[in-house]
Amino acid sequence: MEATLTEDMPKPKRAHPPVKPGPAEEKEQFEFVVVETPGHKRAPSGNLSTPRGRKCRSAVVFAPASERKGFPGYGDYHYAVKLAGAGVATLTVATKNPTAKYFKDEDLDTLSADCVAAVEWLSRRIPGVPVGIMGGSGGGVIALRAAEMSPTVKFVVISGMPLGAGAEFIRQPPDPKEKGEPLDPEADLAWDRLLANCLQITPVKDLGKEGGSEELWRNFNVLMRVDPVWGETQWTREEFFHSVGWLDSAWAKSLLAIDTARMLRRCQVPAFVFLAETDEVVPFKPARDIAVHLLERRKASSLFLSCVGDGHGTFSSWAQLGRTGIDDAVAEWISNGHRLTLTDANPRNFSIEFASPGVLRSEGNP
Fold first, then answer.
1. Which of 6, 112, 134, 170 could, after both became Cys, cross-link 157 (CB 3.0–4.6 A)?
2. At residue 313, does pLDDT exceed 70?
3. With bands split at pLDDT 50, 70 and 90, how would you rate the model's confidence at 72?
4. What angle do CA 179, 310, 104 make, to 5 degrees?
5. What is the pTM of this model?
């Protein structure tokens, strides 16, 4: 049984509302599809964009983002147009159940299997081109897990992904946007010490167990009261955790059971990684150091870029992506055999943190 687009099926809600095509969009082809793949019980829906009037060089599936049914930045029509202009087809994955919220009602393997099904469907729909997955934050974890699950996934593009077990659930205090004051170095070191002591009592991997998050919160309160720096601070559970509602969800339990850094190290396909220096969820310096250390030891091709950005949501906004220049870099890397050409005549607003041999080329040189 081949994967098919079933026209007579009741169509689920669109992953994104339709937009009136502009001059550039009229050149591309957009289609709402239902993904049916042999052996996969669910049938995710999504928006498919294919290059029109030019050769399709590659294809990419947009993994879902936090509590969204599609990727609001990568998966929107504007970025699909950008990639289509480079000869890249795109498919935004949406949940089959319109009432379900990704990252809360589904676990990692279920969401990753949806993306694998989409990749396999797309590889049949557009045969002969490499198909990869692009995802940000938790979507990056899905991309890596999907690459582990299926050899059909030929590359991954990930941004703003927490590196380490459960890193995104514990807040890095104080959040300057909420507290109004930056964290001084002494308080920063004291917080790291306090949190490390908490995690010795309740390891991150145990957070996914019944009552694990409550145990960590109780231990934190006990240790905080006697801490010379943080002892006078009044914290609530909501301030301590980034998202209290996720901690006992299927998504949280599955995420806390894995180590994303090890997943990146094991990934055997070309990887494009990028982070924002201003990310409030994924602290940039430790994440950069971990990522460079891991990518240096990978056998597969790797590229790691960074930019100043505007927080964790930098890469989910079309306008912000355009300002960084990473949108063009991603399009070129995907469509150009996982290589990127640099030229002094066209400076870009990002920094190159790491590149495998042969990934970067100067203009005029092969």
1. 134
2. yes
3. very low
4. 75
5. 0.76
